[in-house]
Write a structure and sequence with these properties.
Length: 263
Amino acid sequence: MAALLAASLALLVMLGGMPGPAAAATTTSTADTISSAVLGWLNRDRAARGLVPLRNWTPLKSMAADRAARMAEADTLSHAAAGGNVGTELSVRGLQWYGYGEIIGASTYPWGSQAAANIYSLWKASSSHRPIMFSARYNYVGVGFIYRSASNTTYASIVFAESKDHTGAVARNGTLSRTGTTVRFAWSGHDPRLQTHTAGLRSFDVQYRVDGGTWRTIRNDTTRTALTLASRSHGHWYGFRVQAADRRGNLSRWTSEKRVWVP
């Protein structure tokens, strides 16, 4: 068995282009499963230390996978082989950042959970990797694993970033009731907490429709969490849904429709 580790933590941007990703023999579904598992282990261990879970950032995950693929193509474990300076690549990809870090690893344990567990255990045991894994400043992360069949080696990169909040807010339906022809709808929401730079909940948009027709906005950027509509016409279904926004304008999905009948 061979297991190698490297780590970097940098906060200065350097300008320059990055090499493109190189192909490596791997299974996408397995790589995604491994990446999700490792992120789960990382956030479990962060929670045990009183830290907020890191949010998966899809562009950052793609970047980490590309960096792992470059190492696999070169069959070399190094930040240079991965693509060089992380800050440069973040900037080239148009990803906003205040700070970043990367940890990389390689293992000849069997591809899949065994290789992932081996690499993660070595990262966790390393005095140079733990400060990055359990930093109190990063809020987003991307995890990438690639297998090189020619050398039976799994390569991995985790890219960490301190960035502005770009996670959507969360909206939830509350109660929907009717008294006579008066309808009352309530809702709630929150902005998911990040380790740093949580924007905070700003407002809600509320829409309603009659009998499955066109949605109409009846509250825009409201900070209230309930409304009352009186004198609704008899013999119709009234549907409601809500969307939340944080202070950076990141929107939630619209909630599923909630309906009430006015006989």
